Amino acid sequence: MTASRIETRPADTQLTPAVPDEALWTRRHLLDLDDFTADELDLVMRTTGVMKEVLAREVPRVPALRGATIVTLFYENSTRTRASFELAGKVLGADVINVSASGSSVAKGESLVDTVKTLRAIGADLLVMRHHRSGAPYLASRHVACSVVNAGDGLHAHPTQALLDLYTITSHLDSVRGRKIVIVGDVLHSRVARSNLWSLSALGAEITLCAPPTLIPAGIGAGEGLLPPARIEHDFDRAVEGADVIMALRMQHERMTGGYVPGAREYARLYQVNARRVARAAPNALVMHPGPMNEGVEISHEVAHGLQSRVEEQVTNGVAVRMAVLWLMMRARPERPAANRGAL
Amino acid sequence: MSDGQIMSPPDVRRAITRIAHEVVEHNRGTQDLVLVGMRTRGVPLARRIAQAIASFEGADIPVGSLDVGLYRDDLADRGHRVSIQPSEMPDIRGKRVVLVDDVLYTGRTVRAALDALIDYGRPERIELAVLVDRGHRELPIRADYVGKNIPTQRTDDVQVRFEEIDGEDSVRVQSLRRAEAGR
Q: Can you tell me the ipTM of this complex?
């Protein structure tokens, strides 16, 4: 009923943007955020604001991508990411087909390239792909004529998660420039942390990575590796001091027995985001987690569901961010490829 | 008129005042009236019409802004219209909505706007007000209120400028042929 009174981002009073967005967005694939400029991130955030308005309507459906076919191809289990992409596509009027590796021809030994070519050949305009191998979406993008969105590849990148994290942060803090953001947990195995590092540092955040030394990738701090520079702090109590945002990462069960940490209890004692530590952060600091949470391990139950938790908001924003990404990629594409281009 | 100016600032002002009077006259008052400006330049035009109505009727008309980017029917020849902005819509259910845009041309944007409006609820009726009707319709759509009818060639470029966005009020028609001849 009050379809108009929704939380949309500012910048609305400005009727003519300085740089035309058409010139800003030329991407056909979304594989990582490592080469995103601040202006591109801003365009995604503004577009997400528009999508929030659509989602707040009584009937959240628009015909923006009517006639487009989106295929989600998941080689790894996922509930929220896949559901989020599927809903995003449907709200925009696209047809969405879900393909899982198990129960498909992948299980019969078909190669990745053959699978994506087949999906393109049946008419996919855009492929949303999750794979346990880092770089798999890059390989796919080089062999098909349709757009490829990385929905998480191995330890490498999870760009839409970082974008929804950014939207969640900026909807509370306006800007991330100069903000203290602490990412705590298994940074070594986290594609979420890596993608967030790129976007948040492109926008000038002060990022601290916090974990035991076994869970920090080598060469990450000084920016000499393949990631932007960040502060490393092994003592979480010190790292959390005055933080504006605390991002906890999921601690996989297999890591706790894999020799990276002595055990779940030991890890929780030193690195759990709990009420005592949140109290040391800035007042009203945002507590975030990409999910699914191991409550009692990397985050305490009371904080996970407390007043400062933004976890549910992250999930909600995920749909709007993915709508923005799908819209931008489908719109920016120079032309609809001819049907036979799938057989490159 | 050497720079192709068709409407001067006073011309624009008078046209807006006349449209405002026509809207009120045709709707027999301001009861249930809502103005919806289409982004970008329909929005300041809708606000001006509302101000004019407020000045002679003393009634505050709700003004919404509508972005039709997500409703356009040109997905096939996509490539250039990435930019969208949030719509801000008042409640239009059961209301008399006057859709406002600066230029009426092919009618495709208006068609998209009609789809969008109906998604926000079922208005009692929808009317259309434009500052300039330049002809060349491709759909069965007409305006109920027109500031000025300007016959144009398809190759002409019609530029409407508003003080709020462009620093001045004016309507210009740049003829591509004329520009080439002058070169």
A: 0.84
